[in-house]
Amino acid sequence: MLTNQPNHITALFPTRQWRVGLIGFGCVGQGLYDILDQRPEAGFIISRIAVKNPTKARTLSAERFEFDAELLLADDSLDVLVEVIDDADTAFWLVSESLRRGRRVVTANKAMLARHLPALVQLQRETGGTLLYEAAVCGSIPVIRTLEAYFGVEPLHRLTGILNGSSNYVLTRMGEEGADYAPALAEAQQLGFAETEPSLDMGAFDPRSKAVLLAAHAYGAFLDPEQVLNLGIEGIGAVDIAFAASQGQKIKVVAGLQRLPDGRVTVLVTPQLVGPDSPLYTVDHEFNGVVIEADFAGEQFLRGRGAGGHPTGSAVLADLAALRQGFAYQYHKAAEAPEYAADLEVEIYLRTNEPRIIDLLDFSEISEEADEDEYVVGYVALQHLIRHRDTLRQYGAFVVRTGRLRPIGEEVETVAASA
User: Fold this and answer.
1) Distance CA 233, CA 194 (A)
2) Are β-strands 365-370 and 375-381 bridged in parallel, bridged antiparallel, or unpaired?
3) CB under 8 Å to 163, separation ≥6 — which residues?
4) Cβ pair 273, 247 in contact under 8 A
5) How many helices (H) does the chain have, and how many strands (E)?
6) Considering only CA atoms, which of 341, 347, 397, 339 is closest in space to residue 367?
7) d(Cα 95, Cα 27) in Å, to the nearest integer?
8) Beta strand spans in 260-306 (E)
9) pLDDT by residue (tens digit) across 3-15?
């Protein structure tokens, strides 16, 4: 027994620090640097840092930075590369080129991953490189690792989540204060919870990218982001918050991934009514939350900070530690990936002062109308919502899912997609 002890100690306390090449020094890069600076016993040291702008003021001395990321890719003395820039196209080139060279890579770029994941998975298989990206989804919440390592082979019935802290903060403040959208967004921007140009967050493009990544691990489904309905909160008003409250519910931007009774899978990312019976009801402000409903394990709930330098930097650190232990995503469920379903009807609350929107969506059933508040509740084909989502944004229409789905042509509810 004692002869094995040194190996266990070595695994827990590595004798050699891994050299990290860091590409990007924004919020996440700075957060990772701070964490490793405070925790040298973690066994990682940032040896080289590449950035784009040589004139930008930074917290470290100028000699710590260089400006050609390709030099880091070619440096075989680096054990791992960490890519945390905000340019999806450049990030794809950096990550794919690193994998072609058989490198270990960590990235936090969810938009790039959602667009190119099949190609990156194929590159890893061909070259032996390894790519991890826990930091790309939900900041500090270990949801991808949980899906991959714990639920890698167990079937999942449903995964629902609040995946964007910026929009969640705005919705929380509107609910607390009865405020309109614009002042709530301005407050979020002032506090650093929302970007100066907030369309990716408020239009649900950011959580859509994250949902695409989750679909690959939860179901083995590799989706084109354009397949997935995403509707945001740009058109929300106090009347919508009041409507939800009258039903004893809140409005949250929810990513819903669900296996249907026929075995197919669908993914929706829109505002949704959430009641007190859901764990997501109490996920407020900048926090994220994910509910996993497994066939055998039952319901699991993960909650944590979804953004920020230190929370997201902690996810990067977790990936670094996993790489050192030889961990790699296996995508077990991809071998029997389910068919993607879009031939469904979704029950929605729609508020608009443009009658043509109602005609465009072609409701198959209307259960409630309120002319004075300009809203209607009823079933609409999912394909109509996808086809006309840009028009909905253009006219400032606001859409909320009630959480109910059904196959096209059904007159009774057959699938309950609760949050």
Assistant:
1) 13
2) antiparallel
3) 137, 138, 206, 207, 210, 211, 253, 255, 269, 288, 290, 306
4) yes
5) 15, 17
6) 347
7) 19
8) 265-274, 287-294, 298-305
9) 444 444 444 556 6
Tokens standing for 48?
Answer: 């080289």
Per the structure block, which two tokens stand in for 108? 């936090």
Residue 77, Cβ density class (10 Å: 0-12 exposed, 13-18 middle, ≥19 buried): exposed
b/e map 309-338, b = 16+ CB within 10 Å: bbbbbbbbbbbbebbbeebebebebeeebb
pLDDT tens string 205-214: 999 999 999 9
Q: In terms of pTM, does the model score above 0.85?
A: yes
Model confidence over 91-107: pLDDT tens digits?
A: 999 999 999 999 999 99
The mean per-residue pLDDT over the stretch 375-396 comes to: 97
What residues pair up with 346 in beta bridges, in sequence order?
380, 405
Tokens 């740009």 sit at which residue? 234
Query: In terms of Cα–Cα distance, which of 232, 252, 250, 237 is closest to 182?
Result: 237
Using the structure block, give the residue that is written with the tokens 């939860």: 218
Read off the tokens for 68.
Answer: 């050609």
Assign 296 to helix, strand or coil: coil
For residue 391, give both structure tokens: 């028009």
Residue for token pair 């990513």: 255
| C-alpha to C-alpha distances, 338 to 133, 196, 220, 264, nearest whole angstrom | 23, 39, 7, 5
Start-end of H helices in 146-263:
165-177, 181-190, 199-202, 205-218, 238-246
The first and second tokens of residue 1, run together, are 């027994």
**Residue 230: both structure tokens together:** 């995403």
**112: enclosing H helix or E strand:** helix 110-127
**Active site (catalytic) residues:** 210
Q: What is the DSSP string of 231-251?
A: --STT--HHHHHHHHHTT-EE
- The token duo for 10 is 């070595």
**Helix ranges, 219-372 (H):** 238-246, 309-324, 355-361
